[in-house]
Design goal:
It is built from 5 helices and 20 strands. By secondary structure, it is α/β, with parallel strands linked by helices. Strand 6 (159-167) and strand 7 (170-178) form a beta hairpin. Helix 1 (3-23) runs parallel beside helix 4.
Length: 328
């Protein structure tokens, strides 16, 4: 075998072995390690390039040792839960030119130190669409409001913008994080009181009366959505190195959920009695669909799905990710 084929082959074998051992329960692998330790693959690639033309035994042993040590950290480390982006890293943002009285965006009321965004509700709004974009933020949603939309934010790097428009009979809200470039690797104070934590965050509240379409496009993001109080007809989430936790309520005639991610951890909860179908196109991903039966390749259904009136349709696609769907 040519030496230049050994290293890529070893990497592929190790990736496949890790996924198989995790899926069959032989190891407890933390998928978020790929998110936090991905530069290891750059190191492996760099070492392989440096010694690409060195055919000596010691050079091959060095390359193999780097791969083994790197995969050892990824497989057996627990960095995601202790030193991860979401728990400890912060965004520092100083804007000496910030105008606390800025109200140029539509529907914006800005309060000194933080920001509040409101959009009033009128009874003629039957369908509303919320578009969320931008990474470097923790997005949360669980509570209702008598407004159509409310958001309370903390900004430490970059800034949020908010606008509204109307497309036919759909009321459209656009909420974006702008100019958040990179991460400042400092630490939270760790007491969870939020006083000294410096992470961009946005807490949303929605009116429960309209049917909602929610579109999220984000990079490095954590998302916690409890949608049990809302009528959701579409939830579409796409992101890179992210963590998505979503809890759905009872479905409409058709509630569609579309998840497209890179390296992420996605957890979706659905009601025990809800009819649900999952189409999974997840590549080298781990998946755990509790209470579902595989009907055809990559298709899963809850018992009695075909005869149910209201249904949840979930489509998942991703690269090296961790997908879980459970019933509560």
């Amino acid at each position: 075998m040519r030496n230049d084929k050994i290293i890529p082959g070893v990497v592929l074998i190790l990736i496949g072995a890790v996924i198989l051992l995790h899926n069959y329960g032989y190891i407890n692998f933390h998928w978020q390690n790929f998110i936090y330790l991905w530069p290891i693959f750059i190191v492996i690639g760099g070492i392989n390039l440096i010694f690409a033309h060195n055919r000596s035994t010691w050079a091959m042993l060095l390359k193999l040792a780097v791969i083994i040590i790197g995969f050892g950290l990824i497989v057996f480390g627990n960095f995601g839960s202790h030193h991860g982006f979401w728990n400890n890293n912060t965004y520092n943002y100083n804007d000496d030119n910030d105008d606390d009285d800025d109200s140029s965006g539509k529907g914006i009321v800005k309060i000194e130190g933080n920001s509040v965004y409101n959009e009033p509700f009128t009874n003629d709004i039957k369908v509303a669409r919320l578009n969320i974009s931008g990474g470097g933020t923790i997005y949360s949603l669980s509570d209702t409001t008598n407004q159509l939309f409310n958001a309370s934010t903390k900004e430490f790097r970059g800034n949020y913008t908010f606008n509204h428009s109307k497309e036919d009979s759909v009321y459209v809200l656009d909420f974006s994080m702008k100019n958040s470039h990179g991460i400042n690797w400092n630490w939270h104070d760790g007491d969870n009181d939020g006083k000294n934590d410096k992470t961009n965050s946005a807490v949303f509240k929605l009116n429960p009366n309209p049917e909602w379409e929610i579109n999220v496009k984000a990079g490095a993001t954590k998302l916690n959505f409890d949608l049990t109080k809302f009528k959701v007809r579409l939830l579409k989430i796409s992101g890179g190195a992210a963590a998505f936790d979503v809890k759905l309520g009872q479905p409409l005639l058709a509630t569609n959920v579309i998840i497209s991610t890179g390296m992420s951890a996605t957890n979706i909860s659905i009601p025990e009695n809800a009819a649900c179908r999952i189409i999974s196109e997840t590549g080298l991903s781990s998946k755990n669909f509790e209470g579902f039966t595989e009907t055809t390749d990559n298709n899963y259904e809850t018992p009695g799905f075909s005869s149910a009136k209201n249904k949840i349709y979930i489509k998942m696609s991703g690269g090296m990710a961790d997908f879980k769907v459970r019933r509560y």
